[in-house]
Amino acid sequence: MSETIKLVMSQVFQVDPGEINAESSPESIERWDSLKHMQLIMALEDELGVQFPDDAIPELVTYGAIEKMVQELKDS
Amino acid sequence: MSEDQLGSLATLLDAVAAAEAETTAWSGEVSIHFLRNYTTEFADPFLKFHLMRDGIRPEISHGGYDTMAQELLDPESAVRQHDPDVLVLSLLIEFLDPECANPGWSADKSIARIDELLDYAVERVRTPVVVNSLLAPVDRLVGDADTTHIDHEVSRINAHLRQRVEAHPSRIFLSDFAELFGRCGGPDAIDRRLWSSAQAPFDRRFLNEYAKDIAYFVRVLKGRARKCLVLDCDNTLWGGVIGEDGIDGIALHDREEPGVHFRAFQEAVVGLVDQGVMLALCSKNNLDDVWQVLDEHEHCLLDRSHLVAWRINWENKAANIASLADELNVGLDSFVFVDDSPQERALVAEMLPDVLVLGVPDDLSTYASLLAQERLFDTTARSDEDRKRTVMYQDAALRKEQRDRFSDLTDYLRSLETVLRVFPVDDDTKVRVAQLTQKTNQFNLTTRRYSVADIEAFMNDPDAAVYAMSVSDRYGDMGLTGVLIARRCDTAAVIDTLLLSCRVLGRQLEFAFVDLCLGALAGAWGSMTWRAEYLPTAKNAQVEDFWDRVGFVAEPEGGGGKRYSLDRRPSIPDYSRIISATME
Predict the structure, then answer these.
(1) Most buried residue among A31, A52, B425, B478 by CB atoms closer than 10 A?
(2) For the CA atoms of B475, B479, B484, B485, what is the dihedral angle to 10 degrees?
(3) Cα distance from A75 to chain B (closest Cα, Å)?
(4) What is the ipTM, given to two decimal places?
């Protein structure tokens, strides 16, 4: 799962998957703007077969937060 | 880039970024600016995909929200400064007129606003526009509101839009959102969350279809629409193998499964031929077997008169298609090839990467709409020439047969009894003239693309002249196949455009045409200095020394291309033995 998240992030933001860590955020990833954020959300939902709750989307702005949310959705 | 990459947004974004990072030469570049009243940026990766796949590198920008008119009118705006090749006017009704949900709402104001925007774009900024037909408000589409009154008013807007497009078919292109919406599953095409969070209502499939529409229009404008369709026969034009199943055993029928799908595909193909697409067959069959189906099968819609050429033999298909390109004098990037066999498709895709290769879908019920949905061929402004084209190419095949019998080229050319007519362009010929400037790549000295409106402007300008030529010979009428545009600047006559259709090359017609045009210009404008130029492109190397050959003197190199001038009449090779030429 974490591999998939990193792969999708690397494809959307054009960064090396190896550079992505829990703190990766718009601060450290240059292309992570509001538009790319929505593309990331859509791409992650496609690849992982999950749907993020609407109100959580603006909060999913670090790799760590995304991974945690995906884990919760998979568990429930 | 391949279709698979469209399967997921992540792989699409990755593929587009990789293609953009490549430094290989693109065969064309195009700048596209969205004038919009909602978030249109999500369409970008899809649009890039469909254009880059065809070798066209797009530069895409988006204007401010709901500042369409300001951008068109303000000479300092990004639109006016950057002068994009194409404008996309992308509109949602709820922002065009926020009152649209009120009872008793009238679309009059929206119609007036759209009219104004199209007028500004077409007349003032003189840039071609893709505009969308309007959908009902999103809340209504997904069922939260219900009023047929809104639907009625919206359809009034769309009827008006259609009229505008019909009046300017080469300047305004309609992306029919209602049709895309239906094709993408109606309300399913709305992404409600994206709508509420980003004011972007459309899902991935819809954006992909929208991007296809825009890319199609760009290709048409750039003269890059596909021109020639090449089809396999067995399991492509009919179900089964004619050599084994026989004429009564193949699947081709007006009602029964699965033959009905092959017949529907044939119907779509014949429709394209009627719109001027060249059709050829390339299959591994016995020639007589194929002719038997085309001539005798009661449900076969295709017949030999639809074909411009064929390669029905056991050679490799890539070599066959390359030789079709030679025979028809059309670039490989104008070809679409449809074959059911993955091996044949792979071979052609590998050997001839410029050819667009399509398979037969597993779900045959989608087969008939395959070619239309991919929007590959130019079916916008159609002139009479297009409808005659198949006949003209058949004439060309006869001409070639004749050529093989003469050893001396002059003898051969004289035997053709060529008649050339040169005349000033008029209302009946302006569509064809504009189309030639859009499509002609090889014998084109400057490759300037003009719309019908541009040609009209030349016609109304006393300091400009547009001449056209039409050619016929003992084998038939080749129609309007050459254009020369000249402009008067002080005491110089500048040859702005000189082009000949590839159908009439190699017959010294260019000399006769230039001779008559310059004679007429000298008569009309008095004694002048002639100026001309050659602007190189990837495809027009064959004319790089054209002006040298008629005695023009090249100026010292400066920038791209060559510039020429001449103070006397040019020294044009004698063509009078082989062409009977008249000026009207």
Answers:
(1) B478
(2) 180
(3) 23
(4) 0.90
